[in-house]
Specification:
3-stranded antiparallel β-sheet; globular; 10 strands; alpha/beta; 7-stranded mixed β-sheet
Length: 274
Amino acid sequence: MNKNLDDKEYQQFRSFLEQQCGIVLGDNKQYLVKSRLAPLMARFDVGSLSELVAKTLSPRERQLRAAVVDAMTTNETLWFRDSYPFELLKNKLFPELAELRRPIKIWSAASSSGQEPYSIAMSAAEFKQMKPGALTGVSIVGTDISNTMLDICKNAEYDSLALARGLSPERRRKFFNDSGHGMARVNDDIKRMVTFRHLNLLDSFALMGKFEIIFCRNVLIYFSPEVKAKIIKQFHQALNPKGYLFLGASESMSGLSNDFDMIRCNPGIIYQKK
């Protein structure tokens, strides 16, 4: 029977999720847990949500635990979300970085199903078309905690519903190849600019290398203030001098870090490493 969790079960699950990936569930979010985890019941042959959570708490259930974290961390996204970060790339950051005359590395720190890193790559391609030879090379790394999402990213094929969310007809024609049945795949020129890898933002970023720009938008809102501060400190270490950090429109660095200068743009805000 797929019933709701009682308070004790919900508190146990909240603790598990925060420990595994830093996400802090608010009070009375049982409905969210139920909607995300219900599809796993048949897959793992359990009869109730309570049983599923009980098995999830067992360290022996590695496959189930991974599937649960996967389900709870999957978020919807869209192409060129909020638009202003991508305009800032083309109008401010790429012209600045072109002066460095070296390859530019960008990190999309929560790539979800790939729309953000591929949107960054398309922005770079549009800038290079406007200013031929201005950027010597742009490489983008997309990371996510969800292996299911990373598989979608790497496949780079999207259905008509996903394609309709934020993607103009012009960009679809320019950067996608139709693959039949309403599906379209990101073209090879854009795909070559982007690589993907698994990363839990609670882990060390030391092996990621150094970047000119990091995107981590609409992710920190799920973490506790202590975890937010730790992640921002690691982003600071992963940025080259004067590197830039994009947060979500509703996210702020206030009270979390003094290592960045806030730059007000019109519209939007970006943070630059001091």
